[in-house]
Amino acid sequence: MNDCLFCSIVQGHTPADIVYQDEDVLAFRDIHPKAPVHVLVIPRKHVRGYRDAEEKDEALLGRLARAAASIAESEGTGAGGFRVVVNSGADAGQSVDHLHLHVLGGAPMGWPPWPSG
Fold first, then answer.
1. Which sequence positions are flagged as catalytic?
2. Where are the domains of the chain?
3. Of the candidates 115, 116, 107, 96, which has an alpha carbon nearest to the alpha carbon of residue 46?
């Protein structure tokens, strides 16, 4: 997709601080981190969002999850704990229409993750 920021990162047109990559997955640091460790894990293939993943994408979704766990470990958050978040749709806070997992860690996190009230 020509207007997708994450596709532009995959294609090398937009710079990113890449922490992991393989043939299907790319991961880079979030430019607006919400935790000491905040890495975005995306498929190289454009999938608009979590709801848009198809049956043929099941293996890809598994690769994203495994990459997230591996990244958490390599970033030093594996033992202390980390969170993986997928925002799906505008009401959930998805701001880029390209499926992405947020790997968050490096500090204690509360629950629920949103302000109460």
1. 100
2. 5-105
3. 96
